[in-house]
Amino acid sequence: MVERTLAIIKPDAVALGQSGMIISIIELNKFSIAGMKKVHLSKTEAEKFYAVHKERPFYGELVESMTKGPVIVMVLEKENAIKDWRDLMGATNPTAAAIGTIRKMFGISIGSNTTHGSDAPETARVEVPFFFPNM
After folding, report:
1. For the chain, what is the domain count?
2. Any idea of the CA torsion for 119, 125, 130, 132, to the nearest 10 degrees?
């Protein structure tokens, strides 16, 4: 069954000109990009999107980092899209990420780890319409 997941190329990677390379890697890994746009999140939008992390100590830093520049948001489709995208991104900490993963190749730190992806079908069902309400 084809799944949908949300993918975000974060501001640090966009600013470093890595978006095209990351999109190429996505396509080489047989994902179909069903939707894509470049947006600059407001503080309110970032707070709402990451509200699930509100009680965590990194929440403020996360909101700040996600609003410092534009992001590329995408809806990716394929069988097992959620797991496959998580695997392709790699571990949250780029130093712990496996060789060949996006975060290993482009990530700078846990806070500047290049990409975001839905972590479960339930999350994807909330995250995709946040940016793509008609999908």
Report:
1. 1
2. 110
Express each pLDDT in 66-122 by its tens digit.
Answer: 999 999 999 999 999 999 999 999 999 999 999 999 999 999 998 889 999 999 999
Extended strands (E) in the chain = 2-9, 32-39, 71-79, 115-117
Tell me, what's the pLDDT at 128?
98
Nearby residues of 63 by Cβ (< 8 Å), 6 or more positions away:
43, 46, 47, 50
Q: Under a CB-based contact definition with an 8 Å cutoff, are residues 91 and 101 in contact?
A: yes
Position 29 in a domain: yes
Q: Give me the pLDDT at residue 129, please.
A: 97
Catalytic-residue membership of 40: no
Q: Which of 41, 116, 117, 118 is catalytic?
A: 116
Q: The CATH number of the domain where 7 resides is what? A: 3.30.70.141
In a domain, 61, yes or no: no
